[in-house]
Design goal:
mainly alpha; Ferritin; binds fe (ii) ion; three-stranded antiparallel sheet
């Protein structure tokens, strides 16, 4: 695959990846309105996930403008996936978050393959390509030094968070609280607890949350990403 093929693959992938967060967020928003119950922080995360995927799309769109055939395929793909995922989310949100967790794992795998191809010299154009300006702004990269590889690493880090959090959503009870202002993102893969300033790896926090949920210790552990 050359650079052009990778852009096609990434653009198509991101148009699909942006759907689940919006559908799940909408369902939980409507359920909160309908049941007059708090959502405990899921809606905010899910809508942010959808927005994050849409930003990925436009980083790559800065480098390739898909033709009419691709646009038709994307439109048809969205119609099918949106319908299927919408129905599936009504039936089993747990199944849907597990499915998205594996979908995101596939996205991590895809970007890893792309970075490997870049490092192996199979994408010579991108070895000298600066990161797209929208990506530089979004991730706060150095506009002078940021290269395509830096953008791919940042996008892959996002996908890894989507993977972990969707598996987490599938593991925990549906109304387990995930929002708290005690924890903030401080750097990719890490969050900080303002009380004791202890840096805790993301996966460890997620594992703790899952273990607590399994034991039904619903102690409102914060896991906002
Ligand atoms: Fe993405
Ligand atoms: Fe993703």
């Amino acid at each position: 695959m050359n650079e052009r093929d990778w852009l096609f693959r990434c653009i198509v992938l991101e148009t699909v990846a942006g759907v689940p967060g919006m559908v799940a967020g909408m369902h939980r928003h409507l359920k909160s309105l309908r049941t007059l119950e708090h959502d405990h922080g899921w809606i905010h995360h899910l809508l942010q996930e959808a927005e994050n995927e849409r930003m990925h799309l436009f980083f790559f769109m800065q480098m390739r403008n898909p033709g009419i055939t691709t646009r038709v395929v994307i439109g048809l793909g969205q119609a099918v996936f949106l319908t299927g995922f919408n129905i599936a989310y009504v039936i089993s949100p747990k199944f849907c978050h597990r499915f998205v967790g594996y979908l995101e794992e596939e996205a991590v795998h895809t970007y890893t393959k792309c970075i490997e191809a870049l490092d192996a010299g199979r994408l010579p154009l991108w070895q000298h390509t600066k990161a797209p300006s929208e990506g530089v702004d979004y991730y706060g990269l150095d506009p002078e030094k940021a290269m395509m590889r830096d953008l791919l690493l940042s996008v892959r880090a996002d996908e890894a968070v989507h993977r972990s959090i969707n598996h987490h959503f599938s593991d925990i009870p549906q109304f387990y609280e995930v929002a708290s202002d005690k924890i903030q993102v401080v750097e990719p893969g890490y969050r900080i607890d303002q009380d004791d300033s202890e840096r805790v790896p993301l996966n460890m926090l997620l594992d703790d949350g899952m273990a607590a949920a399994e034991k039904h210790e619903v102690e409102k552990k914060p896991v906002t990403v």
